[in-house]
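Our preliminary data section would be incomplete without showing what the modeling component actually yields. Below, a chain of 507 amino acids is followed by its predicted structure, encoded as tokens that our downstream tools consume directly.
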Amino acid sequence: MIAKIVCFALQGLEGVPVEVETDVAKGIPAYEMVGLPDAAVKESKERVRSAIRNSGLLFPLGKITVNFAPADIRKEGAAFDLAVAVSLLKASEQLVGAQTEDTVLLGELALDGSVRPIAGLLPILISAKAHGYTRFVVPAGNAKEAAYLRGAQIYPVRTLAETVAFLLGSASLAPLSPEKFEPHLHARQTADLRFVKGQPVARRALEIAVAGGHNLLLVGPPGTGKTMLARCLPTVMPDLTFDEALEITKIHSVAGTLGEDGIVSERPFRTPHHTATTVAMCGGGNRVVRPGEISLAHGGVLFLDELPEYKRSTLEALRQPLEDGKITVARAGGTFTFPARFMLCASMNPCPCGNYGSADKVCTCSPAEIRRYRRKISGPLLDRIDLQVEVDNVPYEALASDSRQESSAAVRERVNVARAIQNVRFEESGIRTNAEMSERELAAYCRLSGEGEEILREAFERMKLSARARSRILKVARTIADLAASEEILPAHVYEAVSYRLGDSLE
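Predicted structure:
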């Protein structure tokens, strides 16, 4: 008898339907798996055998052939275990009358028959629903994650025996109730702008960067608060919407970094070490392709502390994702695309010793050492950083002062107003922030007056800016105007936007 059970294979962030076909025929006992399974799938033979026997069921004798169709897609991971076990039981006529049609079964089996959670469940469920499937059997350990899928019947199971009883109708399971999404504010409890003393220019640049989704570079001596400012970024960012949370959760689910809540409820803040490889940053892998740091930062912040200490090849790999908002990873097993629309925040010292330009400390670096240090950051990468700000030492009086600084909550209110303006502006274009504007949107929404155009022309010629730098200045000026609730970009807005390009001289 031949039995067929539907499962799904994960390809990047997309699920691909896989039909598990099992044939149990008379003959010398044998157990073969075909259909391009990887080592983890082939090893499921013994897991499934033990799970069936330890669940009080009979493992069929005879010539067993399990086929994963279509055969041209590589099957990876242990998510097929439950489907293979049920198909074996059905092919051996132990599940007569079981309701398996149009039911997707997902889960890894332990030797004792318990069902273990799997990575990447949410993107699989979303893809399966897009293919027309609405009935799922999933591991109970993935219940919180699965409960955020709307418009589907999802049944969590703990054991293979429970799964069999449910499919036969001898035991009833209640489908998961949809979870209500509520953004969490954990990050805002550990960092707040009210604790940042002084640094009015950097605080202003941070507000502009978040309001428009712009990239930010902080340059200054050690101990001036660059890292503290960066850690305040999530505290002034708008709360996640449910759609954004699902998009981010898919990435973290595939990466295996999803927490106990089952959904990412606050914007990511990723801080990879400067020794991180290009693969760790961009994503990849030999057997299973996983998203890297820039994808894990999607919807949030990627913070690179001490930017020149990163490998040049790693930094250059950021250039295209910063433009396109996605990263494509090509491997022998296929080409996978992951979203990577993040806000880049980087910090660096002005020189190797960190004291160049300091009023109270002596720089011990030679001019050649300073040039060599700064040239670790390429011109094309600097071009893609919209705001480049110098962070100076704060006087002791300011540090010891009891005067309260403006809180993150107050700044976030202005950011939300500016983001609301952008949401209305780009309602039909599919983009979310000013930083994502193409040349078409720039021409429509970033027109300058004669005086504003003259300011930008003079800056362009004097600072020898690129065409990309000019476009980014316009985007920043548009954000500054939005923060001021101005429909027009005024000359003062252009002046301020130009002032944040002074770091182009770092080359």
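The chain has two domains: 2-168, 186-506. The mean pLDDT is 90. Preliminary results of this kind motivate Aim 1 of the renewal.
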